[in-house]
Amino acid sequence: MSLEKIEVDALVVGSGIAGLQSALDLADQGYSVAIVERNPSIGGKMISLSKVFPTLDCASCITTPRMASVSHHPRITTLTYSTVDAIRREGKTFTAAITRKPRYIDEKECISCKRCEEVCPVFLPDEYEQGMGAKKTISIPFTNAIPQFPVMHPEHCIRCGACARACPKDCIDFLQEPAPVEIKAKAVILATGYETTPMTAKKQYGLGALPNVISPMAAERLLAPHGPYGRVLRPSDGMTPGSIAYVQCAGSRDKSIGIPYCSRVCCMYAIKQAILLSGSLPIADITIYYMDIRAFGKGYEQFYNNARAMGINFVKAKVARITEDENHNPVVRIEKQEGTSGPEEIKHELVILSQGLVPACDGSKFGLGAANNEFGFVKLSDETVSSAVTDGAGVFVAGTAKGPRDIPDSVVDAGSAAIEAASYIRRL
Amino acid sequence: MADVKQIAEQLKKLTGLRGPVPVELRDRVAAQNKAQRAVLDALKAGPKTVPELAAAAGLPQDQALWYVAALRKYGKIADVPGKGDYPKYELKGGEAK
């Protein structure tokens, strides 16, 4: 296998909104950029969201133009479905070892016609839909994925050959191997993003085994117009839920799971989802159980007040336990912190756990001098001086890789990382 | 169009490299095909909700919903407009009417 070599000014690791923005900001200034994404499509978490707070703009309407700009930019090389195995510092430059994972198709020939996906007989849970929908063993990751190439999962392939027979361009390659790529760059931007705390984090909340206790990412998909069911239904039996509850701080501000910090976005995404739910299910009762509402950004407090005015029920209470009745209705045990105290058990039909944000990638593993903070996010060398400079020379950080933050902050940060990287490259 | 002989050769080579398709995967796909057929057969009698479908097809309700989502995505079944706690589904093109 021959080694593909790419030489650029900057390497951006991760193609969520922060990675996309910093790549674009650098490329528009005339720098060449390589952006590496481990998933089959660029766009990160943001492309799977329904709408954004507090404007209720459609998330993909903001993300897809940036995705398209990145993928068509003459100075940006995009590597998707690729992993960064190592980055070595060599004098003033970095050499990154990348592996392109096999999609088992010839990307130069594929015309994205989806015929392979149509004829494939094997269904799989679709992780893009948080398992609520299905995909095929060979499938295009999602409707607005970029690039629009199908990916085959050989561990689920029954080798019937239907995809290869249906392909009009003869581009299915069952024997494709991983391909090594070497990228030389003068600066590195880590935009590796976040994961949410796992559903299994708290045994009091059902360990992910209660079918109608779902993650906020699953709720985003239920609310998305092209979501798994095309409307809001609960996963246990396809019922339109009439009573929905949010459990705030279900994965942050909780020392018992090792995450004492505030994840900064959960209050606002819960309020946003509650507003959207009350729009699509006008007669549903929606309750948010919270410790305190942190609505700190521009227009956030007004957004919160609007939600209250719309009739969303905010209950200041800590949820102790979630169980379910015989019809899989979640039963939430709470202790109110205002008015009458004492424990209460309240039945809902769907519960969303407002999970917190944890790092998706250990930035220090590359050994470039960029250290982590005590929670595993990339540490800034001096927060008061720059929001992008790490302890490693030439290594910058953007977005949630350095800690929980919302989309507007991630975009601003990405610009700052791009400027810091550009200034570093010019000084070399 | 693809050369059928070439595909067969590639698949044979693949089996040589990775061994035969695991029995567990074959069983899973067989069960999937059976469930899919059961859902589609149940809808031939007319539009149904997920609990009705689950009862008719002999599937747990959450699995029936998953097959509904799958078959809806790949154009085999469609939503029936209407109100109620449980939406109904029908075969695409109103074949069941």
Provide a descriptive summary of the structure in words.
The complex is a heterodimer of chains A (428) and B (97). With 428 residues, chain A is α/β, with parallel strands linked by helices. Chain A has three domains: 4-101 and 178-193 and 360-427, FAD/NAD(P)-binding domain, CATH 3.50.50; 115-166, no CATH class; 197-357, FAD/NAD(P)-binding domain (3-Layer(bba) Sandwich). Helices cover 21% and strands 25% of the residues of chain A. In chain A, the strands form six sheets. In chain A, strands 14-20-15-16-17-18-19 form a seven-stranded mixed sheet. Chain A has a five-stranded parallel sheet with strand order 4-3-2-12-22, covered by helices on one side. In chain A, a hairpin with a 6-residue loop joins strand 18 (330-336) and strand 19. Chain A is globular and about 70 Å long. In chain B, helix 2 packs across helix 3 and helix 3 (50-57) crosses helix 4. Chain B has a two-stranded antiparallel sheet with strand order 1-2. Chain B contains four helices and two strands; from the N terminus they run H-H-H-H-E-E. Chain B is 60% helix and 8% strand. Chain B has helices spanning 4-18, 23-44, 50-57, 61-73; strands spanning 77-80, 88-91. Chain B has a single domain (21-94), classed as Winged helix-like DNA-binding domain superfamily/Winged helix DNA-binding domain (Arc Repressor Mutant, subunit A, Orthogonal Bundle), CATH 1.10.10. Chain B has 97 residues and is mainly α. Chain A binds chain B through residues 118, 121-123, 125, 129, 132-134, 154, 156-159, 161, 164-165, 167-168, 170, 172-175, 211, 228-231, 233, 235-240, 242, and chain B through 1-4, 7-8, 10-11, 13-15, 17-18, 21, 25-26, 29, 32-33, 36, 49-51, 54, 61-62, 64-70, 72-74, 79, 84-87.
Topology of this structure?
The complex is a heterodimer of chains A (428) and B (97).
Chain A: E1 4-7, E2 10-13, H1 17-28, E3 33-36, H2 59-72, E4 76-79, E5 82-90, E6 93-100, H3 115-119, E7 123-126, E8 133-136, E9 138-139, E10 151-152, H4 162-166, E11 179-185, E12 187-190, E13 194-196, E14 213-214, H5 216-223, E15 243-247, H6 266-280, E16 285-290, H7 300-309, E17 313-324, E18 330-336, E19 343-347, E20 350-353, E21 357-359, E22 395-397, H8 407-427
Parallel strand pairs in A: 1-11, 2-3, 2-12, 3-4, 12-22, 14-20, 15-16, 15-20, 16-17
Antiparallel strand pairs in A: 5-6, 6-11, 7-8, 9-10, 13-21, 17-18, 18-19
Helix pairs in contact in A: 1-2, 1-8, 5-6, 6-7
Chain B: H1 4-18, H2 23-44, H3 50-57, H4 61-73, E1 77-80, E2 88-91
Helix pairs in contact in B: 2-3, 3-4
